[in-house]
Design a protein that fits this description.
- This protein is an alpha/beta fold.
- The protein has two domains: 7-141 and 180-245, Spore Coat Polysaccharide Biosynthesis Protein SpsA, Chain A (Alpha-Beta Complex); 144-179, no CATH class.
- Helices cover 33% and strands 18% of the residues.
- The chain has eight helices and eight strands.
- The strands form two sheets. The protein has a six-stranded mixed sheet, with helices on both faces. The protein has a two-stranded antiparallel ribbon with strand order 2-3.
């Protein structure tokens, strides 16, 4: 049996959000989005250490209340709307190496905007990471519209590229199409050494893998409508949040 990976879980939660102001502290069923990420990480046996990267005092306070380690304040230049996640990961790695003289096998980057990944999803990612000696494993969701039916719209309203793809396709029924996926933002399991080689979350394509999650657990909250959708999913029973509301297990 291989040795368990030493994984740093890193929750990235900046204070500013134009789409949903105060988003990371918004509650669903009484628990903040930050709380959902914290509790699923705390319930995952693969988590060696759980830290919070934020620029905001109120998020720091909520993080400490949730039992998170808050060893540093994220610099303002890494807390803007256009700040890349690569920089947030690099800052955390740099701080730990410089101040603690330590490295990990991997970083599990978690963003509260995609709150509903479970401890089981993280464990599945770790298993896939280990199996393939991967550089990266991310959360995925199946897309609703397949690429055979999509293209940029022409300046004059033309959809010629879509029609051409449809005409060349072997079949146009949904069941005729191969499954297509996209990232859902639920987690990014990043190899420490792989990131140091490239400085990027998405490095060598051959080393990148994904875990497909269902529609409801893949909800991403970027707009008020997304938040309303998440609340609807919970209140109508499409999404069981009892594992989170019961606290770490």
């Amino acid at each position: 049996m291989p040795e368990p990976l030493d994984i740093l879980f890193l929750i990235a939660a900046r204070g500013g959000s134009k789409g949903v102001p105060g988003k990371n502290l918004k509650p669903i069923a009484g628990l903040s989005l930050l709380g959902y990420k914290a509790r699923s990480a705390q319930a995952c046996g693969a988590c060696s250490r759980l830290i919070l990267s934020t620029d905001a005092p109120d998020i720091q306070e909520e993080g400490r209340r949730l039992g998170l380690d808050v060893p540093f304040i994220r610099p303002a230049n890494l807390a803007t709307d256009d700040a890349p996640s690569d920089g947030v990961v690099a800052h955390a790695m740099d701080w730990i190496e410089e101040h603690e003289g330590k490295t990990y096998d991997a970083v599990m980057l978690l963003e509260p905007a995609s709150p509903f990944a479970t401890a089981a999803h993280y464990k599945q990612a770790v298993d896939l990471f280990t199996k393939h000696n991967a550089d990266l494993v991310v959360g995925l969701r199946e897309i609703e519209t397949y690429s055979v039916f999509t293209s940029p719209l022409g300046d004059n309203g033309s959809i010629a590229p879509i029609v051409e793809k449809m005409q060349s396709a072997k079949g146009l029924r949904r069941q005729d199409q191969p499954i297509e996926v996209t990232m859902n933002g639920a987690f990014y399991l990043i190899g420490w050494k792989a990131f140091r080689r490239t400085g990027k979350i998405y490095g060598d394509p051959a080393g990148c893998f994904g875990v497909v999650m269902d529609h409801w657990h893949s909800i991403e909250i970027e707009t008020p409508e997304d938040l309303a959708t998440a609340e609807f999913a919970v209140t109508q029973g499409y999404l069981d949040v009892s594992p989170w509301l019961g606290g770490p297990t």
